[in-house]
Amino acid sequence: MSVPYNQEKIDKIKKLKKERNAIILAHNYVLGEVQDVADFVGDSLELSIKARDIDEDVIVFCGVQFMAETAKILSPEKTVLHPVKESGCPMADMATASALRKFKKDYPGAVTVCYVNSTAELKTEVDVCCTSANAADIVSLVPEDKQVLFLPDKNLGAYVAKQTGRDIVLWKGFCPTHMRLTPEDILKKKKEYPEAVTIVHPECRPEVIELSDHALSTGGMLRFAKETEEKQIIVATELGIIHRLQKENPHKLFIPISEQAVCMNMKMIELDHIINALEKNETEIVLDRETIEKARKPIVRMLEKDLSL
């Protein structure tokens, strides 16, 4: 019997990982076959913690550019490979360091809270990072007499403002994939599956979040799916997470809110790219020491929940 085509690739990846002393980290949105060969799959917060604590010499990061940069910032002594360098994040590109410097001049003394979905360069200009899993907690740590600037995602920022009751100045960035999801999409699925519970990512529009039962990070969605007694769950986020949800909860039905909920950048990395990365060291994330030192501070403040500025 011939060996399945993908099995040959999987075996090769295992061999190369061992030779390079490498670990594969993957985000919940990447292709299912990539999730399956990864050593660890998680959301941005989980991946940040994992990247900080690994023992392996090489990190192959399967996600978008800012995630691989974050891994390098947290483990600068490691070789960090991003298999497809073109796999970027449109939201991250909506905020630049130079634009933020100008913006902050209008808000002297404000605390800048930056979604980890941002470039390494931008992180050098902010006070503290957050993820969708901990954004409300991080903002709550900011002294109440301080103005909060939140960037780059206006939807997550608006959600956090509502959760915390804080008056937050919002950057105008957004995730194109989540912005495509509409209230009509949710209402349609609710009508088709009246018994289903609805979970959404807080990068969605406020009016979409309003129609949901729970707003959760991808890690939160996975925990909810395991713990709930609900058997039908409408999922309003990027479609890649359905693979893991179904894999971990085979007796439950997960209904994607829309077939349009696809981030093509997250889907760029395939098994061949991982093999190429391990064989040819492509594409290595290179950041200068000053950028790493400056960008590391807001990430560490997030992980340690320490806003001693």
Automatic annotation (TrEMBL):
GO MF, one example: metal ion binding
Classification via Pfam families: NadA
Cofactor note: Binds 1 [4Fe-4S] cluster per subunit.
Pathway membership: Cofactor biosynthesis; NAD(+) biosynthesis; quinolinate from iminoaspartate: step 1/1
Catalysis performed (reactions): iminosuccinate + dihydroxyacetone phosphate = quinolinate + phosphate + 2 H2O + H(+)
Cofactor(s) needed: [4Fe-4S] cluster
PANTHER family, per the entry: QUINOLINATE SYNTHASE, CHLOROPLASTIC (PTHR30573:SF0), QUINOLINATE SYNTHETASE A (PTHR30573)
UniProt name for this protein: Quinolinate synthase
